[in-house]
Amino acid sequence: MKEYRIENLDCADCGSKIEDALKRLHTVRFASVNFPASKLFLSTDDMESVRRRIREIEPEVRITEIKGPDAGPDSFVKKRELTFLGASILLFVAAIAAGKKFGSGGYLHPAYGVFIAAYLLSGWKVLVRAVRTIARGQLFDENFLMACATIGAFAIRQPEEAVGVMLFFQVGELFQELALHHSRRSIKALLDIRPKLAHRKGENGALVDGSPEAVGVGEEIVVKPGEKIPLDGNVANGESSIDTSPLTGETVPRNVRPGDAVLAGMINMTGVLTVVVSKPFSQSSVSKILQMVEHSLEKKSGSEKFITRFARVYSPFVVGGALLVALLPPLLIEGALFSDWVYRALVLLVISCPCALVISIPLGFFGGIGRASRRGILVKGSNFLDALGSVRKVIFDKTGTLTQGVFKVTEVAPANGFSGEDVLRHAATAESHSEHPIARSILEFTGGLADAGKAGATEYREIPGNGIVARFGGRELIVGNDRLLHSEKIPHDTCCVEGTVVHVTVDRTYAGYIVIGDRLRDDAPETVRELRKLGVEKIGMLTGDNAHASEAVAEALGLDFVRSDLLPEEKVHALEEFMREDGGGGKTAFVGDGINDAPAIARADVGIAMGKVGSDAAVETADVVLMTDSPLKVAEAIEVARKTRRIVWQNILLAVTVKGVFVALGITGIATMWEAVFADMGVALAAIFNSMRILR
Asked: Residue 178 burial by CB count (10 A; 0-12/13-18/19+): exposed, middle or buried?
């Protein structure tokens, strides 16, 4: 998949036609045009056929592959168009003045030639495009419609209408491009978190300035106060406060000291920091954010696809209606003038331009994704943002999502003649090869006893969601949850213990258990309250932890349901049950952080991963990634999605209503061509400016 900058594409409907045409090429595997972003996402092995097809549809359009950082469209220069427009306005005024001075006349009136000159100056580009459109057999784009309407006005001796409408159309196009340009720059500024410079320590300790891409893993960089941290790494020297808001949206600065991790894109506020780089720039947090936001434009929402299809039907329908309006009344109604009904038909042609409809949705989602990303919420597509706005059920994982995932040993209970030290030593031995958070908590607690785990394992089997079965020094150790002991048929008299419990057996003899404590996240209760305020109907939890620990968390938070002791595949089955409960009304979101949550994240209508603490599998699988470890961002994501959807539907209803009203006014003879083109351009501009509200 490659990205291309699209130049000279000034019509949303034209962008849709290019996308449809490219999708029909057998050499193209994927094609998506995002008009607000001026981008083409393309997967093909035959670029020549792609460029040839684009030239056939829109000869002026050029595509350029984006390599490296994409600055986007920074300039808005239309000198030639402004010159032609200014000259056309002067000629138009002169023609009107000449018409009043010499009185009315026919086609040979002196003012008529001036009107034609003004018309050609202002509308030559529209006329050329219309001819190309006719040659391709596509009769329903804005250029063809405007050409028919204005030439028709000349034919019925309304030259001032023809020139005025063309002038107003061009002015409206200019304002529409200017508004779009402003919108693009606003979103670009919102996402301008890419560091530009890195101070790398040279061999003699001197600082060498260069791009972040040139710095390797393990090298040291210096970050001065007020600068963006250029790469992910760990603080080696210095203490400072850092502003994390560019990545997370959090406004409270965070203090860092040696050993703490920092991420690219954060801003160093007070002290000088020396940072050891842990990831190349291409894998840094800021790069991943920008990649996710850019690629989110590939995936279009259902409403985007619907309105594109609707526009395809709407334009031919209105044009067909215009033809009937022009022909039938003069034939069927006595005294009806052909010229009057032709004029009314021309009004319908002007109002049938589909651009306001086509542009109303993608621009809203474009702004919504940009806004969400600025708040530390990465949405991987307009379709997912749309689905997020329809969420009625939210299901959480427990450990690391609603709880902090920071485990500490709180109790050791030996049995069958084993001492507490025996239980800890055997647990540490078995867990010494595991990277699970529970294993790390046991190893941290045991300290010197963990050295016993350095002995090589002759057998080792880690069972996801259960525990470990291993053999060290001739002894079989089974360390895990109650379900593992039952599956291995180990006799034990303790099953129900409050908290996260790790049972330990030695040579199939029950040695005792270790209780691991985990605290609720501080904002977990507020998360549930905010979701309730947003109208989320059910909030639940699916977890692999035991029933006692899970039910305690569910009761503390006031959750509607909880299922515990679940393996990853069992989480998926339970999730599917809850999704089917209400017959499919509303969407279901699943929020998790670990690799064991990845299947459920993938199965949910909207999968949400905790990006800061989450595993790579969860983040890659998720539709939405939260850049902080705060579950409260789930409520914020739903709120942004719903606001975006409200704005999108406002745009749709505005465009459909205004066009519907003017179709009726045009048929009844009340609306003029001037008013029709004003309504068409006005509704497009209103949709653009309304969409920009999401950025505030």
From this structure: middle
pTM above 0.85, yes or no: no
Q: What would the two tokens of residue 155 be? A: 């034919």
Q: Please indicate whether residue 192 is annotated as part of the active site.
A: no
627, 630, 599, 633: which is closest to 402 by C-alpha?
630
Three-state SS letters, 432-477: CCCCCHHHHHHHHHHHHHHHHHHCCEEEEEEECCCEEEEEECCEEE
Distance CA 604, CA 590 (A): 6
Q: Which amino acid is at 646?
A: R
**Residues contacting 243, CB < 8 A, separation 6+:** 253, 266, 267, 269
- Tell me the pLDDT tens digit for each residue of 493-513: 877 777 778 999 999 999 999
* pLDDT above 70 for 12: no
pLDDT tens digits, 227-271: 889 898 999 999 998 888 777 666 678 889 998 888 888 889 888
Q: Taking 70 as the threshold, does the pLDDT of residue 450 lie above it?
A: no
**Kind of pairing, strands 254-256 and 220-223?**
unpaired
Phi, psi (degrees; rounded to nearest 5) at 180: -60, -45
N-terminal to C-terminal alpha carbon distance within the chain: 32
* 589 neighbors 604 (Cβ within 8 angstroms): yes
Q: Which two tokens stand for residue 50?
A: 């792609």
Q: What are phi and psi of 480, to 5 degrees?
A: 175, -160
Distance of CA 613 to the CA centre of its chain: 21
Please give the domain boundaries of the chain with CATH numbers for all domains: 2-67 (3.30.70.100), 198-286 (2.70.150.10), 377-403+521-642 (3.40.50.1000), 408-517 (3.40.1110.10)
Let me know: does 420 contact 512? Beta carbons within 8 Å: yes
Range in 301-315, 339-353, 602-616 with the lowest mean pLDDT: 301-315
Above 60 in pLDDT, residue 454?
no
Given a contact cutoff of 8 angstroms between Cβ atoms, the answer to whether 115 and 163 are in contact is yes
How far apart CA 691 and CA 696 sit, in angstroms, is 10
Cα–Cα distance, 35 to 244 (Å, whole number): 31
Task: Find the catalytic residue in 13, 386, 397, 482.
Answer: 397
Token reading at 1: 């998949």
